[in-house]
Amino acid sequence: MSISLSTSSPSAPLSSSLAPSASLEGSSSALNTAITPADALCVVPFVPEPVLRQHHAFVASDTRFTAACRLLAALWRQDQRLPCGTHTPGSRRRAVQASSATPLPKAIRLGSRLSPAAARAGATFLSPEIAAYAREALLFREPGSLWEEGRLWGNLLSSQALTLNLLAPLAQDLDLASGVWRRLLPGFVNTVSDLRFEHSPGRRGPDYFGDGTAFDVLLDVVTPDGEPAIVAVEVKYVEGMNGPTPTPRPCYAETTRASGLFIDPDAASLMQPGFEQLRREHVLTQLMVQQGLAPRAHFVLLGPALNRRVHAVGKLYANELRHADTDAAADRVGFSTLTLEAVVAALAVAGAKELAASFTARYLDLTRVVRCVLDRPPSELPARRSGRRPSSVPPTASATTATAAACMTTSVRQRSHKLSGGKKRRAAPVKS
């Protein structure tokens, strides 16, 4: 029996796995259910290891979601006829310390990487215009900003490249940007006047943290009331939000308490991986308001609907915040968790259907992964190391019992020879 998948008409066996994305917090909840495609997978497909290896997409440490996205990236690269890149296992520190006595591990092909030539050509970006914007952004980057250029150009799972693929067209078309963010945050955004990438208000300034904390994107907007405001955005793709936390600084605790954002600013949960980054960037946004850079602000966590870790952390983090239910709380920076799927749907509604479709195919269409797995014929059992192929018929219960009985009889005979006091003789095998 064959099972076919299409984005417009899911097949019956998979219909139970198809549902709209999870609803968003706050004013964007209605948008998420209204414009997110109704055929989005609600379960991450589990990709068998042989399929991943076939496409050079197997990494032992990958989560289920990362593995599916890595395969999707490899399939996209194959569709674009782009040459595969390589990856050298091991940490960066190990690479630096390697010598002739301890050579680096052998580089392996990795389907989610581009060859150096393809990377230099900007093939990771969805259009030449986005690639040109990326080069310009790097040319005029803020002093001290952190751009992982190797990942940006050559790693198809880079969240920095994803951010540019999704939002650089909005920076080049502010009417489109306004149409998108007006739908995403209808109670906060009316128009968008500017977008800045890898932005920090004071990367090393004493009025802020002095540690280089920055936002993936910062939008200058005008609210429906005509008031200038900012929207700070943190973008995740395959990240699990469990990376290392920075060394605590006194200013972190002091500004967290002074921000007025949290029910308990000293809660231990706010120091945990993932939560700590959200707390730091949220407080940094609040500092921008307190420093007079904007009278109002909103902080957004953005990630794929199926990256459950991102949205779970976002929901739990929101539970730590004080409710902005009074006029006195109007100057407190709000927080929302949005899905990438909601942004893509808003793009389509705002008129950028081609960009929405190409971005989905590049990053979000895991039904392509499902088709790849289901269309693959079952592989044969691998041969044993001895070179003997495993029997196609498994042993029956009676045969297994007889074998065990024969082994036990042989063992008993061996012990009886030893106990008889005579010479040790090798016991003859029991005939069946």
Protein model, in words:
The protein has 432 residues and is of the alpha/beta class. The protein has a domain at 12-37 and 127-353. The chain contains 16 helices and 7 strands. The protein has helices spanning 29-35, 49-54, 64-79, 92-97, 116-120, 128-139, 149-154, 159-172, 174-184, 250-259, 275-290, 308-318, 340-349, 353-364, 367-374, 397-419, and strands at residues 84-87, 108-114, 191-199, 215-222, 228-235, 296-303, 334-339. Helix 9 (174-184) packs across helix 13 (340-349). It starts with 28 loop residues before the first helix and ends in a 13-residue tail after the last helix. Residues 1-38, 380-384, 386-413 and 415-432 have low confidence and may be disordered.
Topology:
Blueprint: H1 29-35, H2 49-54, H3 64-79, E1 84-87, H4 92-97, E2 108-114, H5 116-120, H6 128-139, H7 149-154, H8 159-172, H9 174-184, E3 191-199, E4 215-222, E5 228-235, H10 250-259, H11 275-290, E6 296-303, H12 308-318, E7 334-339, H13 340-349, H14 353-364, H15 367-374, H16 397-419
Parallel strand pairs: 5-6, 6-7
Antiparallel strand pairs: 1-2, 3-4, 4-5
Helix pairs in contact: 3-14, 6-8, 8-9, 9-13, 10-11, 13-14
